[in-house]
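Friendly challenge for the regulars: who can give me the structure tokens for this chain first? No prize, just bragging rights.
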Amino acid sequence: MSAALSRLEEVLRQQGGLIASLLASADGAAAAGSSVAAAQPRSGSDGGGPGPAQRAARGPRAVADPGEYELLVEAIYEGYLLHYGTPRIVRAPEADLALLAGDQLYALGLARLVGLGDVEAVAELADVITLCALAHGGGELELADAVWEAGARAIGWGGSSEHERAKALARAGSADALAAMRAAAAV
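First reply, four minutes later:
Bragging rights claimed.
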């Protein structure tokens, strides 16, 4: 488990309440498949490399507090996984509960980002959440992966005209969105 994911687990445990009771290790033993590598979904790393949080935290825009950037992106990514994938540290026994827990993690990560005063990254993560919802709604899982990759890059290094074009194509449901998003992630 990454240091940031362990830190997120500790933050959630300290907050207490329902979400703390949903932690995979809440009963002292991790739930089956709770390791980061084993539970990593299509979006993000394949378990052998950095995920979106690590990519974002390595960029020059995150240099003031890379640990905080990594933590808040992990929170938002875990929220995303509760909605669409296999979460790594939170286990919700019911779909409705997973959605609520995911929303709480989105809010936690965005609130921490607002605390850093990074309005540009707030807007970028809002776009990531929205574009991933559109991609999943259209059955475009590869596009959702590419949205996370490009979004993490934009958070860490800043946006670009190519990235804005890729987001516009994704919003429009264009067949060119996937290639554009991948290109924006690679810039």
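Residues 28-46 have pLDDT under 50 and may be disordered. The chain has one domain: 3-186. Your move, everyone else.
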